[in-house]
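Q: I have 736 residues here and want to know how they pack in 3D. Can you give me a structure?
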Amino acid sequence: MSISVKNQTFTLSTNRTAYQMKVGAYNFLFHTYYGKKIDETDMSYLFSYQDVGFSGNPYDAGKDRTFSIDTLPLEYSSFGIGDFRGDCIQAELADGSSSIDFRYRSHKIYAGKYGLTDLPAMYGEESEWATLEMHLFDIKEEIELILYYGVMEKWDIITRACRLVNHTDNTVKLHRMLSACLDLPSGNYDMVTFYGRHARERNMERARLHHGIQGMESIRGASSHQYNPFVILCEPHADEEKGECYGMSFVYSGNFLAQAEVTQRNTSRLVMGIHPTRFLFTLEKGESFTAPEVILTYSAKGFHRLSSNYHKAVRNNLCRGKYKTARRPVLINNWEGTYFDFTDSLLLQIAEESAKLGIEMFVLDDGWFGKRNDDFSGLGDWYVNESKLKCGLKAFSEKIHDLGMQFGIWFEPEMVSEDSDLFRTHPDYVLNVPGRPGCRGRYQFVLDFSRKEVRDLVYEQMRKILDGARIDYIKWDMNRHLTNVWSAGLPAERQGEVYHRYVLGLYEFLERLHRDYPDLLLEGCCGGGGRFDAGMLYYTPQIWCSDNTDARERLFIQYGTSFGYPVSAVGSHVSASPNHQTGRECSLAARGAVAMAGTFGYELNVNQMTEEEKETVKKQITDYKRFYDLIQDGEYYRLSGPYGNTASGDTEGVCAWEFVSEDRTRALLFAVLTESQGNPVQKVIKLRGLNPESVYTRVDSKEFYTGTALMNGGILLPCAGGYCPAVCMEFTVRKE
């Protein structure tokens, strides 16, 4: 088994890594090591014991002033007992005190992966996983802390989660409970984070850790466009192919905190979990609280291996359902083609032409329901607007299927318009403080998904739609964040539970859809990429990456996304040129190349395209279907980024990426030239991941190259005029 115990030292081993902890003096649980694979050696020999001024000593230590939990690496830090670094848990006991001192009492080791009730988590066959449970108790009260560790050898994955159980006769008020803590012996790291805004999500940013605290957070009720719940600590010299990297990805879709600290001893602490702002859970006797899962991985060979670990683990052991592995259809969404202004006859014209081009699914976006001619009304009234769809939704869906296409539809179940029957009937169903006017976003309010009766009402409306027509796909949108967070379903003293209960309600709703409609393809969306996180991917195997469909902008967005999430999760479409968000013109070839680094589809009115453009679309779809397995399941390499950062070669002004099959017999190179130059200089891209000894054929030219030549010398990109020209080169191993 991948978990070994020797002299109360626990070593968790994967293919290339090891994670170690130790029950030390006075039953404190210390973190001893995380990095390259080692044997069972107790790495606590590296601990430094000194009398550090103003770092207190536990009472048990007597006169030993060299033993302080303020200076030693801990597995999980508690507030108020002598560790002044960023803590993971704060709780208030019946006497008003807040010092809970957790010590090791027992552990369990078993084959398979632990599960989390009502929360998304990684999963797999029993033979793929091993679980360690560490059971800690307060030294005075019967308050139990269970630390969960899942070990997956194959992808070098360690998962962490925890649960607090109140075994006392009194109430425990939980003010803060993060999911994971990682103490590292050095402070010499960079922190890589992914920031942004609506329509420009997940921009990569890298900064040197400094003394004190830095990090990312969201208190918007969703993981947010602004900050993604995924971070990397890496050595300053780390790049795609070298350097130590530590990753943390939060399997949660609400408020979060990811925080790094360089301490007075020049060590580092990285913590992640639910944001403590406006968080207060009351636990009565026998009740418990479970903190969501964090996925950790380590790479000794730079960002690529770290990303590869996440790509494989998320695709194979987090995403679920039919479309985890089944080929997803090439779709067309009518939103940018028509917005709210459509009739069934116009939509059918688009669908008919789309079917001729090889597009496999038609998706009806916003505006098909209630009194919905703009974004000021209609949300919450999930019945068909028959002034637009005169034939009705059932007949319309049948007509789409008669074209040989599947049919999808847009919902925004978490929201309600003031001008709607639902709001007029149930104004108390929204999140808002009584007596206050509230705060609008996109001229809509948020339904209180923490309440079962609210979820049931919306689900019943959706069920009637899903059962009444032939629907194969749902785009689940969320177009504002949470404000005035107050629920009529909870008493005043429990309002601090609403943010988290909202997320749990969302997960319960999505789980119902999974159960009742197992063949339905769900795509997540939150104004694009405002809830692009590992938690949502448990329910929706793909997420609309951004509302910004400009190909050049998408290079930045999809580049940042690729560090923690697989291509199979990235909703990406070809849209019109000039682009509707930026006004930028871009070649159809470049738009297609960028969209192929995702689930691929179209977001335009094909009837407005020229015949030449339609022929290009046909070829793009044919190529994508042929490349599908390679793109979705192949090893993904970032060769050069849109920021000018590069793995090798003179690639300024070029964004390039590559897919390589598992057996290394096929490779697919994409490159987009992001600058238009007069008298352009040559650009060479060095491929990666090939078999050095194999001879590869470039399919479109019949030229031959060895793997060594392509990786060390590279391939010359053709000089092309115009803005955003694109290159796609396919390589296969030459057959003797």
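Q: Anything worth noting?
A: The chain has a mean pLDDT of 96. The first strand starts at residue 3 and ends at 6.
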